[in-house]
Amino acid sequence: MYSKSEMLFGQARQVIPGGVNSPVRAFKSVGGNPVFMQHAKGAYMYDVDGNKYIDYINSWGPMILGHAYEPVVKAIQEHAAYSTSFGAPTALETKIAELITSMVPNIDMIRMVNSGTEACMTAIRLARGYTGRNKFIKFEGCYHGHADAFLVSAGSGVATLGIQSVPGVTAGVASDTLAAPYNNLPAVEELVAGNKDEIAAIIVEPVAGNMGCILPQAGFLEGLRKICDENGILLIFDEVMTGFRLARGGAQELLGIKADLVTFGKIIGAGMPVGAVAGPKEIMEHLAPAGKVYQAGTLSGNPIAMIAGYTLLQTLNDNPVIYDQLEEKSNYLINGLKEAFGAAGVVYSINHIGSMLSVHFTEYPIIDFTAASAANNELFKRFFHAMLERGVYLPPSAFESWFMTNALTTEDLDTTIQAAKSAMQAIK
Ligand SMILES: *Cc1c(COP(=O)(O)O)cnc(C)c1O
């Protein structure tokens, strides 16, 4: 059933470390071999062995309107003929900057980079340059990309592989990163009190999506906002996952909390490699060449990436009903999953907001990384493979969120629910 994928994985491991270009893809957490993809359209992916999957990863978020979304494909094809890169400014960069600053609250300016990692790395450098302070606070199980300073108590692949401290990250760099449990304000207050006037920023996923999906508890983000205001600290919302997914204006809009800097990735590039950092003029103009905080990129603002992102964002901006539809589809799926798990008699906890959700097999609420780690990962593994065999492609780790696409039909959701029922009966 997966013979070509197995062969390709064997070949890949000879020339690519671990056979993949990003760790979670390797299926290490769930075991078995990764499936190699051939093509995808709408809500479906097709592998090299001819198997079809309903996709709940959607390239980890970008394919919010489905794979090979026609207007995006057309725009890319058209613009590719004008050259794939100039290394000089284009009007398109201003156009997408204007669109994004009109969609997202509390930002005047945006700087384009090539990944979410770069965006978060730049946001921290900017916060340090702006405040003249070196340390920052992050949360256990949150993931802000793979820059050195973030690989302390990180989520996503770092959590999936169970890496506690990363070889190659110096103690000097790690010592400026302070970590607190998610949803734990007293721990943050303690860190701030113990490092008075030394903390440049608090960076947080306003809805955590890299240890499964974990919602901020009532008052958590408000509390961070207050702590930052009282101590001259910048609040950075890492909206690489939540930006343009939870609402047009991301978590800031949905949850009504103002951040000082926001980072983007994933949806912003419609599947092309794009990230961005945004904020008020007063802070953003500290970036070079307006200011002295250096940041650059040979391919930043790449025309193909920009037209892809612009086309997708414009569609989202013009059709806010998409967010209601995604929410309805998520609720429909979750009700079906609850039936499937209930019928199998397993304990479970489903976290959900908008079009992000995750399933942990545990009787306890999942509010932080410790809780997520304590869930039954063995059962998740078996569930993952049973679903894969039934044509449903879930994230290959319980430490990742499921991302809904609006290309899903009710029929797809019913097929998924039937697969979950049959999978649970087979593995329980
Ligand atoms: C994916 C992600 C990143 C990293 O983005 P890359 O494009 O993979 O570098 C950073 N922060 C969050 C919240 C993410 O989900």
In short:
The chain has 428 residues and is of the alpha/beta class. Helix content is 40%, strand content 14%.
Helix/strand-derived category reads alpha/beta
Bound molecules: pyridoxal-5'-phosphate
Number of domains: 2
Globally, the shape reads: globular
CATH topology category name of the largest domain? Aspartate Aminotransferase, domain 2
Termini Cα gap:
23 Å
Q: Provide the succession of SSEs.
A: HEEEHHEHEHHEHEHEHEEHHHEEHHEEH
Report the CATH C-level class of the largest domain.
Alpha Beta
Largest sheet entry: 7 strands, mixed
Number of extended strands: 14
The CATH homologous superfamily of the largest domain is named Type I PLP-dependent aspartate aminotransferase-like (Major domain)
Strand order across the largest sheet? 4-10-9-8-7-5-6
Based on the coordinates given, report the CATH architecture of the largest domain: 3-Layer(aba) Sandwich
The radius of gyration computed from the alpha-carbon positions, rounded to a whole number of angstroms, is: 21 Å
Low-confidence spans: pLDDT under 50, at least 5 residues? none
Q: How would you describe what is shown here?
A:
By secondary structure, this protein is an alpha/beta fold. It folds into 2 domains: 3-68 and 320-427, Aspartate Aminotransferase, domain 1 (Alpha-Beta Complex); 70-318, Aspartate Aminotransferase, domain 2. It contains 15 helices and 14 strands. It has helices at residues 3-15, 70-80, 91-103, 116-131, 156-160, 171-174, 185-194, 220-231, 250-255, 281-284, 303-318, 321-344, 369-374, 377-389, 410-427; strands at residues 37-41, 44-47, 52-55, 109-113, 135-139, 177-180, 199-204, 234-238, 261-264, 275-279, 349-353, 356-360, 392-393, 402-403. Strands 4-10-9-8-7-5-6 form a 7-stranded mixed β-sheet, sandwiched between helices. It has a 4-stranded mixed β-sheet with strand order 1-2-3-13. The chain has a 3-stranded antiparallel β-sheet with strand order 11-12-14, with helices on one face. Strand 2 and strand 3 (52-55) form a beta hairpin. The radius of gyration is 21 Å and the shape is globular. The two termini are 23 Å apart. The model has no long low-confidence stretch (mean pLDDT 96). Residues 115-117, 120, 143-145, 205, 209-210, 238, 240-241, 265, 275 line the site of pyridoxal-5'-phosphate (PLP).
